[in-house]
């Protein structure tokens, strides 16, 4: 979904702070993502991880390397905070700065969630002038029962991975993010609210596969 990927990458580039590094995981897409990322972001700010997963591998839930690559990216990083930025996400331009401020002021919190703004990617661009502010589960379904939010809304301290051994399940594809944050919930309790809008979410047809329909009936090439 190159159109969505470009939105996501441009939103990273537009951050008001440059204290970030992107781990770009291309998990077997028919449209390679690395050339798209290289055209938008400085090469020294991105590390590329490529999976040879096939659709069949993902459907069988056996042998998928997606979780292992996410864990590897965290293990090889020196970052103190991490987020999941899916191709249908776009960051609010102050999000990284807001994350840094929030976690600096709340040393006791190991993870926290933001609000999202939704947008139709066939009609709008994810800018502050558009989008409806809402909990994402108003449109999709809750990935994280402890706080009824979607995984893309959550940021966490990477020491949860390194020190407390909370990692993404592997091999696994289906609900891999939900399982990760359920583990976080079991370890640290309910996820607190950051008090800000952090990202935009494109909402479109079959966004969640066969699990649940969404309001928009559009297709994203």
Can you walk through the features of this model?
The structure is a single chain. The chain is of the alpha/beta class and 221 residues long. Helix content is 29%, strand content 20%. The protein has helices spanning 2-13, 34-40, 55-60, 66-75, 95-105, 159-162, 176-188, and strands at residues 22-27, 46-51, 81-83, 89-91, 111-119, 132-134, 154-157, 193-202. The strands form 2 sheets. Strands 3, 4, 5, 6, 7 and 8 form a 6-stranded mixed β-sheet that branches. Strands 1-2 form a two-stranded parallel sheet. It is globular and about 40 Å long.
Which tags fit this structure?
single chain; 221 residues; alpha/beta; six-stranded mixed beta sheet; two-stranded parallel ribbon; 20% strand; globular; disordered C terminus
Summed up, the helix count is 7
Beta-strand content: 15-25%
In whole angstroms, how far apart are the ends?
A: 5 Å
Q: What is the N-to-C order of secondary-structure elements (H for helix, E for strand)?
A: HEHEHHEEHEEEHHE
Number of strands: 8
Question: Mean of residue pLDDT?
Answer: 80
Share of helix among residues? 25-40%
Structural class: alpha/beta
Which regions are unreliable across 5 or more consecutive residues at pLDDT < 50? 209-221
């Amino acid at each position: 979904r190159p159109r969505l990927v470009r939105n996501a990458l441009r939103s990273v580039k537009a951050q008001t702070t440059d204290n970030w590094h992107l781990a770009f995981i291309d998990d077997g897409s028919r449209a390679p993502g690395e050339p798209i990322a290289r055209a938008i972001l400085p090469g020294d700010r991105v590390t590329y991880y490529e999976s040879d997963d096939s659709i069949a591998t993902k459907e069988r839930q056996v042998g998928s390397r997606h979780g292992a690559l996410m864990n590897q990216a965290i293990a090889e990083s020196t970052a103190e905070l991490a987020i999941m930025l899916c191709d249908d996400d776009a960051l609010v331009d102050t999000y990284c700065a807001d994350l840094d401020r929030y976690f600096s002021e709340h040393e006791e919190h190991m993870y926290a969630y933001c609000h999202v703004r939704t947008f139709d990617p066939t009609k709008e661009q994810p800018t502050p002038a558009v989008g409806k502010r809402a909990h994402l589960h108003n449109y999709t379904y809750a990935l994280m029962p402890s706080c009824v939010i979607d995984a893309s809304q959550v940021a966490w301290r990477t020491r949860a991975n390194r020190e407390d051994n909370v990692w993404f399940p592997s091999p696994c594809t289906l609900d891999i993010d939900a399982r990760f944050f359920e583990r976080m919930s079991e370890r640290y309790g309910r996820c607190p609210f950051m008090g800000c809008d952090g990202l935009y979410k494109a909402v479109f047809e079959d966004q969640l596969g066969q699990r649940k329909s969404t309001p928009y009936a559009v297709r994203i090439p």
